[in-house]
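User: My instructor asked us to take a sequence, write out its structure as tokens, and then describe one feature of it. I'm not sure where to start. Here is the sequence I was given:
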Amino acid sequence: MIKAKKSLGQNFLIDKNILEKITNTTDIQDKIILEIGPGTGNLTSNILKKKPKKMYVIEKDNKLVIELENKFTNQISIINDDVLKIDETNLFNNKVKVFGNLPYNISTEILNKWIINLKDNFWFECLVLMFQKEVADRIIAKFNTSKYGRLSILCNWKLNVKKICDINPNSFYPKPKVDSSLLFFYPKKNFIKINNPYNLEKVTRVFFNQRRKMLKKPFNQLFNGDKRILDKLKIDLNLRPQNLSLDTYYRLAYEYENLRC
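Assistant: Let's start with the prediction itself. The structure tokens for your sequence are:
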């Protein structure tokens, strides 16, 4: 058996029931599929059974690439590269469905990269992704809760997110020390337009830099105490960052962007 590399955050999924649940999350037949980090190809095999039109995989580990080539021959197209360095928007002519047991050490970095670079004409139909449960909980957290923060706000801007299930460590080899969660992402039809996503990234960074403090200081830092914006968005500066809704942050980013035009 191939030895997992801790440096690449590798934990290979081996639970047949979970593999089946993942591939039943969305229709695969005659679709173009992209799998991130296929590892030894357990999920890949299950996806191929559903008869996709075409399947691509992105795998950084050279030894695993050889394993995948031997196992699947001409059934898949292998991209031997670092997913963080790839521009998926220029990789495909048609929209794809993305599956991934993401490496825990870079899972949020991958997702942030996709969202920051996401154009209005989405390059994917949906994302079926596995995260460390603690990270997944932050992604789906609602405002007025302790886990709500920058990740929740960024991930829910252009995407709907739904939790499929939790997965215990026994489903993997080697066993991770934490539980995992499977999330399903699909594009929103309507969302607040922000021309430069880094403005949303900056607004949330400033507000959540001191999440236990009231909103007055970060608001003044970004908007110089502009009362018109307070009145327009109906913001109470005595609240804390976690008390503002998703839409309020998107509207704040929109106002911040307009101030800089």
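For the description part of your assignment, you could build on this observation: Residues 246-260 form the longest helix (15 residues). Try explaining in your own words what that tells you about the chain.
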